[in-house]
UniProtKB/TrEMBL annotation:
<keyword id="KW-0969">Cilium</keyword>
<comment type="function">
    <text>Plays a role as an effector of the ADP-ribosylation factor-like protein 2, ARL2.</text>
</comment>
<keyword id="KW-0539">Nucleus</keyword>
<dbReference type="Pfam" id="PF11527">
    <property type="entry name" value="ARL2_Bind_BART"/>
</dbReference>
<dbReference type="GO" id="GO:0005634">
    <property type="term" value="C:nucleus"/>
</dbReference>
<feature type="domain" description="BART">
    <location>
        <begin position="33"/>
        <end position="147"/>
    </location>
</feature>
<comment type="similarity">
    <text>Belongs to the ARL2BP family.</text>
</comment>
<keyword id="KW-0966">Cell projection</keyword>
<dbReference type="InterPro" id="IPR038849">
    <property type="entry name" value="ARL2BP"/>
</dbReference>
<dbReference type="InterPro" id="IPR042541">
    <property type="entry name" value="BART_sf"/>
</dbReference>
<keyword id="KW-0496">Mitochondrion</keyword>
<dbReference type="GO" id="GO:0005758">
    <property type="term" value="C:mitochondrial intermembrane space"/>
</dbReference>
<dbReference type="GO" id="GO:0005813">
    <property type="term" value="C:centrosome"/>
</dbReference>
<keyword id="KW-0206">Cytoskeleton</keyword>
<dbReference type="InterPro" id="IPR023379">
    <property type="entry name" value="BART_dom"/>
</dbReference>
<protein>
    <recommendedName>
        <fullName>ADP-ribosylation factor-like protein 2-binding protein</fullName>
    </recommendedName>
</protein>
<keyword id="KW-0963">Cytoplasm</keyword>
């Protein structure tokens, strides 16, 4: 026995199976465009060129940032320069991949889909709009550059999964 499911005006023939349930998922064109943009965004921020751009910028200014409650006046122009540089780069890269891409529309969509975005991408995007996330990124970078980053190696224990052999072949003779 066959049933027809309509996706828009297009009938899709489905065979009935008594023990199985099937779901048809349809996303809107704007959702599909958003998903495509996020996929490209992942590629862009993982690319060596972006990593170099961000690292060069942070190398230029990381000494200005201190891990204190007080925010220096110099942070504001650095934050604005970062937003301008990185947002412009990302927008240009997305426009190359998606002609007609609109950053304003994409930014608005981010708020609607923020729970669907991978943590590392969302954290990076947060540095564009959240000054405290931006400052924390610089403080972490400075700690890493100065060798003060969190060292978890003291808590690591390496244990062999192989039992030591007692066969004579492992005994060295001089």
């Amino acid at each position: 026995m066959y049933n027809f499911v309509y996706t828009g005006n297009v009938p899709v023939m489905m065979e009935n199976f008594e023990e199985e349930n099937f779901a048809v998922s349809i996303s809107s064109p704007s959702d599909a465009e958003f998903d495509t943009a996020v996929g490209y965004l992942e590629d862009i921020i993982m690319d060596d060129e972006f990593q170099l751009l961000q690292r060069t910028f942070m190398d230029k200014y990381y000494c200005e940032f201190e891990d204190t409650e007080e925010n220096k006046l110099v942070y504001t122009p650095i934050f604005n320069e970062y937003i301008s540089l990185v947002e412009k780069y990302i927008e240009e890269q997305l426009l190359e991949r998606m002609p007609g891409f609109n950053m304003t529309t994409f930014t608005a969509s981010l708020q609607l889909h923020k729970d669907e975005i991978a943590g590392d991408i969302f954290d990076m995007l947060l540095t564009f709009t959240d000054f405290l996330a931006f400052k924390e990124m610089f403080i972490d970078y400075r700690a890493e550059k100065e060798g003060r980053s969190l060292d978890l190696s003291g808590g690591l224990v390496v244990t062999s999964l192989c039992k030591p052999s007692s066969s004579p072949a492992h005994i060295l003779k001089h």
